[in-house]
Design a protein that fits this description.
By secondary structure, the chain is α/β, with parallel strands linked by helices. The chain has 2 domains: about 280 residues, Aldolase class I (TIM Barrel), CATH 3.20.20; about 50 residues. The strands form 3 sheets. It has a 10-stranded mixed beta sheet. The chain has a two-stranded antiparallel sheet with strand order 2-11. The radius of gyration is 21 Å and the shape is globular. It contains 11 helices and 14 strands. The N terminus is likely disordered.
Length: about 375
């Protein structure tokens, strides 16, 4: 069975993504913050909301602190990490690396953080700073060095360090160089991620997944794998062509997103923190209003109570039916000489069946449902 499988009734969470704050010190060109006229409702997740979350943490495998903001803006971030760790969860978070100090790096090591991911948009100063702002390149690499030094001084193997590399039509050209530049930092993972949700024409132009990979593109991928091999880094890249997908990588069967206002949503893309003018995503069906989907608030109920709501269970059941059918059919594909022929027949059968088993309306135009 797939690792994505999960009983829809729960409650057992493989991962909870928590947005401790949606405030950010940057204004990246790939973020909804750059949408003209947008009114972002900036706030931090309060202690009362976290209190209603705590019971669920006892049956949660991992917590990842990330949303539409920068977690390192919170002065009590190490204390919050300790709070989650006391419940037995593995804790990680993603940062732009723009605010790290020597003291903060030491505190992140001592508080028991399991993993830290640094968000990168390019290997060179020109590209990184074009998308993330002046000075962001130097601060990112300095931040990685500070955490590595803090680990060495403490004699600690944690937090594991990773890079999330934003793949765009521009940054793909610097992918091999970015991997090579990471050699000295002892990364456990270098993960390429697609820019899937574009809210402006500039962002749409940067989307790589809509491009058909050519020979030069494939050479860049090979060179990146070569650099990863010699640097002892695990390189993880997303799909570059659409594929048959029963459920997206966010795995709404066993994971959810908690926004800074306490709302519980299936994923971060279904609850952007804005009001006033609507955010529109560029999709294969046109420029469409971003769907908003939340199932409750931690200010009114616990996460387990929200998870058990009939509406939320019905939402997850649509994915579970697709996944069960997919796994049953794929399980009949053998490894013999006729395996390729069997796979082709099964894929056609699955594609036809998925027309009768659609994903929820709010997910139907999401690139994640094509494997990106």
């Amino acid at each position: 069975m797939s690792t994505l499988s999960c009983d829809i009734s729960g409650p057992h969470y493989q991962s909870i993504q928590i947005e401790l704050t949606n405030r950010c010190n940057l204004s990246c060109k790939t973020c909804i913050r750059t949408v003209p006229g947008i009114n972002l409702q900036e706030q931090d997740l309060s202690s009362s909301a976290i209190q209603n979350l705590k019971p669920s943490l006892e049956h949660t495998d991992a917590v990842h602190l990330q949303g539409w903001g920068e977690s390192m803006l919170l002065g009590d971030l190490p204390d919050r990490i300790r709070c989650f760790k006391l419940k037995g969860c593995k804790v990680s978070f993603t940062t732009s690396g723009s605010l790290m100090t020597k003291q903060q790096a030491a505190e992140l090591v001592s508080c028991g953080l399991d993993a830290i991911t640094f968000s990168m948009a390019g290997a060179t100063v020109t590209l990184q700073e074009d998308l993330r702002g002046k000075g962001s390149h130097a601060r990112l690499w300095q931040s990685m060095q500070l955490v590595q030094e803090a680990k060495q001084q403490a004699g600690s193997k944690t937090p594991a360090m990773a890079v999330s590399y934003l793949l765009t039509t521009e940054s793909i050209n610097e992918l091999p160089l970015a991997v090579k530049f990471c050699w000295p930092f002892g990364l456990s993972l270098f993960a390429g991620v697609q820019l899937t949700h574009a809210a402006t024409t500039r962002q749409q132009d940067l989307c790589l997944f809509s491009s058909c990979p050519g020979q030069r593109f494939k050479r860049l991928i090979r060179h990146a794998h070569w650099h990863a091999f010699w640097g002892g880094i695990r390189l993880q890249l997303p799909q570059f062509l659409p594929d048959l997908t029963p459920i997206c990588e966010k795995n709404p069967l066993a994971s959810c997103f908690i926004a800074a206002d306490g709302s519980v949503a299936p994923c971060v893309f279904l609850y952007p923190p804005h009001s006033g003018i609507p955010v529109n995503w560029y999709t294969k069906k046109g420029h469409l209003a971003a769907p908003i989907k939340r199932f409750g608030s931690l200010y009114q109920e616990t996460l387990d109570q929200i998870w058990q709501r009939t509406e939320y269970q019905s939402f997850r059941k649509l994915f579970k039916d697709r996944l069960d059918f997919y796994e049953k059919k794929m399980g009949h594909v053998g490894c013999g000489m006729d395996g390729i022929e069997q796979l082709d027949i099964v894929r056609k059968s699955i594609r036809k069946a998925f027309l009768k088993r659609p994903v929820p309306d709010c997910c139907q135009n999401c690139p994640k449902m094509e494997g990106f």
